[in-house]
Amino acid sequence: MKIVVTGAKGFIGKNLCIMLRERGHQDLVEVDRETSRESLAKYLSEADFVYHLAGINRPKDDTEFQQGNVDLTCFIVEKLKQSNKKVPLIVSSSTQAERDNAYGQSKLIAEKSVEQYGNDTGAPYYIYRFPNVFGKWCKPNYNSFVATFCYNILNDVDITINEPSAQVTLVYIDDVCRSLISLLDGSEFSGFKSVSPEYLTTVGGVADLLRAFKDSRNNLVTENVGTGLCRALYSTFLSYMSPEQFSYAIPSYGDERGVFSEMLKTKDAGQFSFFTAHPGITRGGHYHHTKNEKFLVVKGKALFKFEHIATGERYELQTDSSSPQIVETVPGWSHDITNIGDEEMIVMLWANEIFDLEAPDTFSRPL
User: Fold this and answer.
1) Strand ranges across the sheet with 314-320
2) DSSP 21-53
3) CA–CA distance, 198 with 178 (Å, rounded to integer)
4) pLDDT digits (tens, 9 = 90+) for 205-219
5) Is 268 strand, coil or helix?
6) Residues acting as catalytic residues
7) Which of 18, 39, 88, 243 has the fewest Cβ atoms within 10 Å of its own Cβ atom?
8) Through-space distance between the first and last CA atoms of the chain, rounded to whole angstroms
9) pLDDT in the model for residue 339
């Protein structure tokens, strides 16, 4: 299948082309502003499927809307009609098509041209009125406030928000591309299409989340970045980092026993840390009433000792990095860990709550 993508170097086009190739679509023709009309006409005559993503949204003069949105779409439609192949055509439009402005009206005319193409030829056609699309590789200070906010916040540049409570509908680039690619199997009916999920939020809410992402490098507290809008925004935020921003330091506390460092804290699922211990060194010697922990020795050999604080019952176990094993600390049992190997021991530690200096729930009781 020969697939033609106009606007291939743009935000959506670049992401789409990569995902198409990932799915095995290698016969892909990328059309951009440097492509001549003669070359485009040739590509269209050979096409089996067309993604028309090119367009103008930030012109120097409103007349460019006619050239970039209306004229180009009409050209594509006319060349596809001449091929007599009923080539499926997808056009990228905008929610602005519902508004009375020069950009919106140019998009509306382009939509009607595509719809007429489908009616005249019987070819499948699909129209997407995209709301605010965000994700990696969108140009800052252009047509996405999310891209601008990400770039500015990362680089300590002020952002301007006139109305923080203003509602905005967002769709994520990966979801956009998946929706576009799903149409290749020809099972969808022609007409208007939408991307799912859509995220309804506010401009101020987006800014607050992005600032929290940046702050997490200092306070180590992560947002819930594993699902939904927060996941997509966090991925987008990271994509605007320069290579020099890929890493950041964390606090490390060292003494004669080794070092201890906190790595990551969550709002509702505890925190991750690690510590080291020199040969023969014992750490711990305390108990908790409620707090619980999981230990994983990632380097070296360890002896864990436990004692029930009420009954005096004792228990010991050994573990080492050659056979990874999680060791739980149980409320009401005092515990410690000793490096019984000949090399430095490194242990990963998860606690179910963020350490609170005012209420540490940690009571000394050496074994």
Assistant:
1) 314-320, 301-308, 333-339, 282-287, 363-364
2) HHTT---EEEE-TTS-HHHHHHHHHH-SEEEE-
3) 14
4) 999 999 999 999 999
5) coil
6) 103
7) 243
8) 71
9) 98
Look-up: residue for tokens 């209420």? 359
Between CA 317 and CA 323 the distance in angstroms is 13
Concatenated DSSP letters for 82-126? HHTS---EEEEEEGGGGSSSHHHHHHHHHHHHHHHHHHHH---EE
| Amino acid at the residue 277 | A
Cα 134 from Cα 131, distance rounded (Å): 10
Q: Tokens at residue 187, please?
A: 């099972």
Sign for the CA dihedral angle at 230, 233, 135, 105 comes to positive
CB 31 within 8 A of CB 53: no
Relative orientation angle of helices 11-22 and 173-182, to the nearest 10 degrees = 60
Q: Tens of pLDDT along 235-281?
A: 999 999 999 999 999 999 999 999 999 999 999 999 999 999 999 99
pTM: 0.92
Amino acid in the structure at residue 252: S
The secondary structure of residue 139, as a DSSP letter, is: P
For residue 140, whether the previous peptide bond is cis, meaning omega lies within 30 degrees of 0, is no
Contacts of 365 (CB under 8 A, 6+ apart): 285, 286, 287, 307, 309, 334
Domains assigned to the chain: 3-130 (3.40.50.720), 132-171+197-248 (3.40.50.720), 252-364 (2.60.120.10)
Alpha helices, DSSP H only, in 201-313? 203-219, 228-239
Sole residue written with tokens 């180590």: 220
**What pLDDT shows up at residue 104?**
81
